[in-house]
Amino acid sequence: MVLYRPVVCQQCSSEYCTNRNSRCPHCLEVLVMAHRYIYYVMNTNVISDGDYDKLEAQARAVLPDTSPVHGVGSSLADSYTTEQVNKAYFILNLQKE
Ligand SMILES: [Zn+2]
C-alpha cells in the first residue's frame, strides 16, 4: 500500500489536505485542480457537484484571471502539475480509509 503524505502548501506551508476553508489562494487552486483531476482524468468523484461548484466559486473569487481555476477541466493528465496530482491521490486515499 502506498502512503500519500499530506500536501504542504508552497505558499502558506499549511497541510491543506482536506481544508476547504483555507484562505490561502494557492491552497484553493490546488484543491480545485485536484478535484478536476479526480473527475476528468480518473473518471470518478469524491464530492457532490454542488460542493464542487461552491469550492470552484470560492477559488475563482480570490484567484487572478491567469489561474487555471477560471478555465474548464481537462482530461489530459499532463495539464495538471505534480502538486495537483499528488493532492488528488491524497484526497482519494483519504476516502478509502
Ligand atoms: Zn496555502
**Strands, count:** 0
Overall pLDDT:
85
Strand content: under 5%
Broad structural category: mainly alpha
Q: Give the oligomer, counting copies of the same chain as homo and different chains as hetero.
A: single chain
- The helix content, as a percent range, equals 40-55%
Main sheet: strands, sense, barrel = none
Euclidean distance between termini CA atoms: 12 Å
- Any idea of the CATH class? Mainly Alpha
Q: How large is the count of helical segments?
A: 3
CATH fold assignment: Helix Hairpins
Search tags:
97 residues, mainly alpha, Helix Hairpins, globular, binds zinc ion
Provide a descriptive summary of the structure in words.
There is one protein chain. The protein contains three helices and no strands. With 97 residues, it is mainly alpha-helical. The protein has a single domain (25-96), classed as Helix Hairpins (Orthogonal Bundle), CATH 1.10.287. It is globular. The structure holds zinc ion (ZN). Zinc ion binds at residues 9, 11-12, 14, 16, 22, 24, 26-27.
Topology of helices and strands:
Blueprint: H1 25-41, H2 49-62, H3 82-96
Helix pairs in contact: 1-2, 1-3
The protein binds zinc ion.
Zinc ion is lined by residues 9, 11-12, 14, 16, 22, 24, 26-27.
Summarize the structure.
By secondary structure, the protein is mainly alpha-helical. It has helices spanning 25-41, 49-62, 82-96.
